[in-house]
Write a sequence for this structure.
């Protein structure tokens, strides 16, 4: 059986009650009785000593009559609710506060021994079988002329001690009950603040485990429970969004693969069944080759993105001259520039400008940016590549005066497969993966890439890289 947290808490609460009650009923009970007994015995012994030093001494010195002592003791005994005796050392009763003793009748306490009292000067029992009920008795010696003349004994029914100990104990029971009720408030608070929110969170996690990522937890408290719920809600919405992206991604990939494959299949079938005459084959085979190139590009792009994501982007960072890489990339586009009548202008800072990064990846970034700049440039325009140094950063900008990117598209162009409507007519071979790859690479370097673009005027992509210390050696 699965034990809930709530069940455990209730169990702890009940155990607390049982233990509390047991402790009060045993330890506290015996401690209270012991305490009451000792206090009472102390009071009685003090009183007995006082009587021994006053009335009893006077009686033995024959300064007062037996009668008057009996009356005095009787009133003290009534006040104390006790019985007071004066005994001879042998145990013969001289005065009893309860009744007048006939001097002729010899009343002896059989077996009387004043040493029966414990170290606290009292004894509990029937006092040598004199009483039928248990009494607490104290014995105080009456001394005079360096000898013991007799004893003062005070007896109190033991049931009285038990009664007053019990009334004290009742207070402890009452306190325990109040404590128990107060701790019920803690239990209610726990239920409201921890258990109910936790239950909602558990239900939510069960929903998430079952795949329902749209489930939302309704816990709005401003505490750890609230933060946990908000984090879980955020996590679920992110997963839901990623699932959505994944679906879109697969849909895009299938679409982008299907259209070239359909056209390749169409042309090849037409060639085989003779719809396209043999003399036209070369022209259509070129189209087929073009389409396969597009497929290769698409596959490579996907593989690169996948590698970037799965390897947590392992970068092989070195210090390299970015100016040299820019020159190389620009040269590789020489033919394209000639075909499009677009010039590449290099505005580079210094002869050599060292940065720290993964040279191959940065070359890929530059290649993609320059490729886009040329693709979307008008004839007879200039693409400018510039490097600038600011503080510990090197900024590289690739700027064209082409078709530009509409404001509403500027956020989305970084997404996989995204292409603006403006560009579709100009670039049929684009995969929409280039800028996603660029952004992933720059992010992996811990740097930024920004876009400044105006529709119809042109675009500028600027990315930063860490400046290498090797530049300082160049300056020296
Ligand atoms: P593609 O392979 O289609 O170029 P990218 O991810 O590199 O994919 O670019 C995404 C889209 O962003 C392009 O299709 C185009 O619409 C837009 N874009 C990128 N660079 C430029 C630019 N320099 N000028 C205008 N539009 C651009």
């Amino acid at each position: 059986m699965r034990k809930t947290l709530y069940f455990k808490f209730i169990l702890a609460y009940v155990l607390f009650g049982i233990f509390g009650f047991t402790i009060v009923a045993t330890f506290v009970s015996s401690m209270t009785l012991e305490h009451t007994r000792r206090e009472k015995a102390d009071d009685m012994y003090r009183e007995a000593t006082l009587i021994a030093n006053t009335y009893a001494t006077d009686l033995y010195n024959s300064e007062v009559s037996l009668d008057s002592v009996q009356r005095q003791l009787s009133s003290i005994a009534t006040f104390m609710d006790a019985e007071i005796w004066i005994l001879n050392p042998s145990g013969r009763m001289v005065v009893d506060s309860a009744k007048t003793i006939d001097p002729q009748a010899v009343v002896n306490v059989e077996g009387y021994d004043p040493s029966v009292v414990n170290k606290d000067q009292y004894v509990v029992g029937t006092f040598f079988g004199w009483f039928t009920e248990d009494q607490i008795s104290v014995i105080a010696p009456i001394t005079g002329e360096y000898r013991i003349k007799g004893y003062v004994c005070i007896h109190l029914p033991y049931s009285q001690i038990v009664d007053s100990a019990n009334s004290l104990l009742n207070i402890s029971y009452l306190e325990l009950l109040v404590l128990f009720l107060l701790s019920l408030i803690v239990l209610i608070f726990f239920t409201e603040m921890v258990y109910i929110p936790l239950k909602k969170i558990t239900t939510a996690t069960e929903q998430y485990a079952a795949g329902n990522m749209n489930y939302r937890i309704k816990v709005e408290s401003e505490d750890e429970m609230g933060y946990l719920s908000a984090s879980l809600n955020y996590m679920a919405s992110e997963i839901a969004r990623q699932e959505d992206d994944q679906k879109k991604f697969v849909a895009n990939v299938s679409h982008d693969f299907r259209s070239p494959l359909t056209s390749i299949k169409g042309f090849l079938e037409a060639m085989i069944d003779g719809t396209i005459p043999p003399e036209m084959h070369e022209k259509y085979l070129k189209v087929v080759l073009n389409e396969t190139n597009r497929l290769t590009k698409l596959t490579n792009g996907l593989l690169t993105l996948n590698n970037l994501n799965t390897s947590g982007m392992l970068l092989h960072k070195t210090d390299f001259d970015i100016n040299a890489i820019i020159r190389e990339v620009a040269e590789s586009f020489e033919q394209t520039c000639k075909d499009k009548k677009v010039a590449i202008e290099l505005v580079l800072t210094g002869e050599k400008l060292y940065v720290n990064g993964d040279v191959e990846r940065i070359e890929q970034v530059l290649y993609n940016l320059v490729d886009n700049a040329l693709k979307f440039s008008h004839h007879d325009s200039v693409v400018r590549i510039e490097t600038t140094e600011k503080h510990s950063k090197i900024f590289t900008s690739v700027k064209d005066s082409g078709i530009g990117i509409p404001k509403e598209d500027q956020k989305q162009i970084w997404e996989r497969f995204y292409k603006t409507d403006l560009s579709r007519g100009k670039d049929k071979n684009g995969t929409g993966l280039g800028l996603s790859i660029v952004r992933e690479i720059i992010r992996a370097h811990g740097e930024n890439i920004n876009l400044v673009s105006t529709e119809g005027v042109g675009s500028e992509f600027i990315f930063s890289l860490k400046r290498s210390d090797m530049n300082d050696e160049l300056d020296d």
